[in-house]
Amino acid sequence: MAEKDYVKTVYVDGSEPDVDAVHLNNTEDGLDGLYHPEFDDSGTVEGITSFPTFLSTVVKRMNPIAFYKNFKAGMKYVLHTGSLINNGLCTETGKYAADATQLNPNIANTLAWQVAKVNSDLTVKSGIINSSYMDIIWRLSGKAAILSYAKNVKSPMNADTNYQLGTVPFDCQNYYAIITTGRNIFAFISIENNLVSMTPYSDFTSDSWMYFHVPLILK
Hints:
This protein has 219 residues and is of the alpha+beta class. The strands form 2 sheets. A 4-stranded antiparallel β-sheet has the order 1-2-3-8, with no helix packed on it. A 4-stranded antiparallel β-sheet has the order 4-7-6-5, with no helix packed on it. The protein contains 4 helices and 8 strands. It has helices spanning 21-35, 51-55, 64-74, 111-121, and strands spanning 125-130, 135-141, 144-151, 163-167, 175-181, 184-192, 195-200, 214-217.
């Protein structure tokens, strides 16, 4: 839709023209165009691809009807309160922004505060699983966990016998590992539903130490 230019009434021979219907209607049409502008309101204008390109169209003596069209296209590139999403659920790139306070970890419940809290909760924790057969040292850090060496193995620990050693105090995926001492396999360890079990490959003697390092992925 093209914008109409206002055709002003000009003087003829240094005197005002006659006040006739043509000249009156011309003035009335110009005023009506300002109060009830007709313009392309699709919000898309060729050449306006950012707020700075919109500003470049705002020049002196510009057609006000063209300004309406350009203004609607340019406002798409301006952030407003409806463009602020203060949660972690947004999936559209480049369309929304977060309030600047969300980047301040010192304000409770902001995104930065929650991230800082999660990071602080990921401190390394450790403990010992005390079972009737052996003690297992576990270490937890973030989304990873490690079962380290076991000590104080009780006899008898017979080969091909499954021993339930206890439960780990965190949720991890089901896991199976082979425990070795260098080149010799001497046990199989498994974790199912947080229950740690071990099946010896050979008989263990009392007070022996088993060295193993089983990395786990937490749920």
